[in-house]
């Protein structure tokens, strides 16, 4: 039977790490849906029209270099506000969620739109300051020339656009468990998530 775990929340709250740890702990597949929007945004920056970029996206595009840059993140959040772009990407995500053996999907609208019937839903969040520090450490650690202020401003701009858009805005599903990781170590957050999934499965 397909067992689906939906993980949503703003950038740099810990979704990715928690998703990977859950996939590992329960031996199920993981899809970082942000990568789909980043790959679409990357193609937009390369001159492909946004809806066309989403409709013709190939699995190999998700492996492209440079998807983790601030410019691509901004382009991703711009294309993600276009309803036709989101529509073009739904089937791929739902098919992934239904794969036998179960799946973890993380993004912004997994518990609300893509998998409203998911067995377990989390909304992972943390304060702006904590998220900016985490993303700053990540970006400067991979050689990006950024300042903490810039990273904070970028996160706020992206979260505001993701929350305010009409199409599938970032909001916790009514039945999501909210996990605020501001004061937690990553090990504590992972432990809390594993405990909850174990109780529900
Ligand atoms: O999660 P990540 O930061 O990689 O996502 C990049 C952007 O893609 C987000 O800011 C958001 O605009 C968009 N996104 C989305 N829905 C998802 C996943 C990502 O709108 N399920």
UniProtKB/TrEMBL annotation:
It comes from Pseudooceanicola atlanticus. It catalyses: dCMP + ATP = dCDP + ADP; CMP + ATP = CDP + ADP. Its EC number is 2.7.4.25. ATP binds at residues 9-17. Belongs to the cytidylate kinase family. Type 1 subfamily. It holds the Pfam family Cytidylate_kin. One of its GO terms (biological process) is pyrimidine nucleotide metabolic process. This is Cytidylate kinase. GO terms for molecular function: ATP binding; CMP kinase activity; dCMP kinase activity. One of its GO terms (cellular component) is cytoplasm. It is found in: Cytoplasm. The keyword Cytoplasm applies. Its main location: cytoplasm. Residues 5-198 form the Cytidylate kinase domain. Keywords: ATP-binding, Cytoplasm, Kinase, Nucleotide-binding, Transferase. It is an enzyme of class 2 (transferase).
């Amino acid at each position: 039977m397909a067992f689906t775990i939906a993980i949503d929340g703003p950038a740099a709250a810990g979704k990715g790490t928690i998703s990977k740890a859950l996939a590992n702990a329960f031996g199920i597949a993981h899809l970082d849906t942000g990568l789909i929007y980043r790959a679409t945004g990357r193609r937009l920056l390369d001159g492909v029209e946004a809806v066309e970029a989403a409709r013709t996206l190939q699995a190999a595009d998700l492996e492209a270099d440079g998807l983790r840059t601030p410019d691509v993140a901004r382009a991703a959040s711009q294309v993600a506000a276009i309803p036709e772009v989101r529509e073009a990407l739904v089937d791929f995500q739902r098919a992934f969620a239904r794969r036998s053996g179960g799946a973890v999907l993380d993004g912004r609208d997994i518990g609300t739109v893509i998998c409203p019937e998911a067995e377990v839903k989390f909304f992972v969040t943390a304060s702006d300051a904590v998220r900016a520090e985490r993303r700053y450490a990540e970006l400067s650690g991979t050689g990006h020339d950024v300042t903490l202020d810039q990273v904070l401003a970028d996160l706020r701009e992206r979260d505001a656009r993701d929350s305010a858009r009409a199409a599938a805005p970032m909001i916790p599903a009514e039945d999501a468990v909210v996990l605020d990781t501001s004061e937690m170590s990553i090990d504590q957050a992972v432990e809390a998530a594993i405990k909850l999934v174990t109780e529900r499965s």
